[in-house]
Design a protein that fits this description.
Elements (H helix, E strand, L loop, with lengths): L14 E9 L3 E8 L4 E8 L6 H17 L8 E6 L5 E6 L3 E2 H7 L4 H20 L2 E2 L8 E3 L5 E3 L6 E2 L19 H4 L7 H17 L14 H10 L12 H10 L11 H14 L37 H22 L1 H34 L1
Antiparallel strand pairs: 1-2, 2-3, 3-5, 4-5, 6-8, 7-10, 8-9
Helix pairs in contact: 2-5, 3-5, 3-8, 7-8, 9-10
């Protein structure tokens, strides 16, 4: 497969381009340095030839979802979203140095760290679900590591409404190695149960150093072959001496072929992972879940959004009236500073000074008179 070349980075006011970070099907990601406040950021930019109403709607939805959820400590922070001068929409996000995909390809992660990642991601996804959002692309490359070493969930590019995830016109996309059987066979585009499976498959991958249903021989990992193995969903034990039977049993339930056999929610999964931590004598990860969904302030529908621009023509009568009203107010203000009220205040000050001087003269005369009498 031939990889396409990276698009040219847009010129963004207040940002200096540094280098490319990665490419996707519809967007490129670049490293920029922000001028104020001074920091490095990742900027995701839509490809010019990929912009169509459906992709633009998905991109705008991603910005909205991340803005609603990025206050969660385990979800990537978004700083701003806008449209560049050449018409390409972009997101400015927290820059993370690597992903867990980079990590597990070097070496499988330890059990303690993997369980911690599992709890934190389950809490982040439970918060998303409570806000009515399905991520639909949970996998190691979408779990990034911040500069503080904290895992955060990223890329809500194909997220969908929990209430309408199976609508006929919904954008269908998947990462097969971490997709549930019912997603792979086309029965659904996403549910809470499929998200539980995907997180379980991600945890398995971090411990195994490979996705759950990949074969040792590369030629056996075609799309069709892997899809067939996932649909059958025969669990293969990790076989690590430091991974106890209790952990294997939990992963097997999480990746049950039947959705009914999996934990009922991300909160349920997080609690089972925390219970496993306690049983193994490991530190218990914090369970950070929003108490309620974050409300939307308004419903803009499909109305285009981007940089705020005036809708008043500079030659219009409204603009003329506004300009005239502004000039009128300015003239009145100048008159108040230069005209009669200022002179009135000056006159009052002179009069007050004269009264005080007269009072001093009168008081002096009285004193002299008294001294003369004595």
């Amino acid at each position: 497969m031939v990889r396409r070349s990276t698009s040219s980075p847009p010129v963004l006011p207040g940002f200096s381009y540094v280098r490319p970070l990665g490419s996707g099907g519809f967007a490129d990601v670049f490293l920029y340095e922000q001028d104020m406040p001074r920091r490095v950021v990742a900027v995701k930019v839509l490809l010019a030839d990929a912009i169509n109403p459906e992709v633009l709607r998905a991109f705008t939805a991603e910005a909205d979802v991340m803005a609603r959820l990025s206050s969660h400590p385990s979800i990537l922070t978004i700083y701003q979203a806008s449209v560049s001068a050449d018409g390409r929409p972009y997101l400015v996000m927290e820059y993370c140095t690597e992903s867990l995909s980079d990590r597990y390809k070097r070496a499988p992660l330890g059990l303690a760290e993997t369980l911690d990642v599992g709890v934190r991601m389950a809490a982040a996804l439970e918060t998303a679900h409570r806000s009515g959002v399905l991520h639909r692309d949970i996998k190691p490359s979408n779990v990034l590591v911040t500069s503080m070493g904290t895992p955060v969930l990223a890329d809500f590019g194909i997220a969908a409404s929990l209430a309408a995830s199976d609508e006929a016109d919904d954008m269908v996309a998947m990462s097969i190695p971490w997709s549930a059987p019912e997603v792979v066979d086309g029965s659904t585009t996403g549910t809470v149960a499929t998200e539980v499976w995907a997180l379980g498959a991600t945890i398995y991958t971090l411990l195994a150093g490979r996705s759950p249903f990949s074969a040792d021989q590369r030629e056996k990992n075609t799309r069709e072959a892997m899809s067939s193995r996932i649909i059958r969903a025969t669990y293969q034990p990790l076989g690590r001496a430091d991974v106890p039977a209790a952990a294997e049993s939990l992963l097997q339930r999480v990746m049950s072929r039947s959705a009914a056999g999996r934990p009922t929610s991300m909160l349920d999964l997080a609690e089972q992972l925390r219970w496993l931590q306690q049983e193994l004598g490991l530190p218990t990860s914090p369970l950070e879940v929003a108490n309620a969904a974050v409300p939307m302030t308004s419903d803009l529908g499909d109305r285009p959004r981007g940089p705020v621009m005036t809708t008043v023509n500079k030659d219009s009568r409204r603009a003329a009236r506004a300009a005239k009203a502004g000039i009128g107010r300015g003239e009145r203000d100048d008159d108040e500073l230069r005209g009669a009220p200022v002179m009135g205040r000056r006159a009052r000050m002179i009069l007050l000074g004269a009264v005080l001087a007269a009072g001093v003269v009168a008081a002096t005369a009285v004193v002299l008179l008294v001294l003369g009498v004595i």
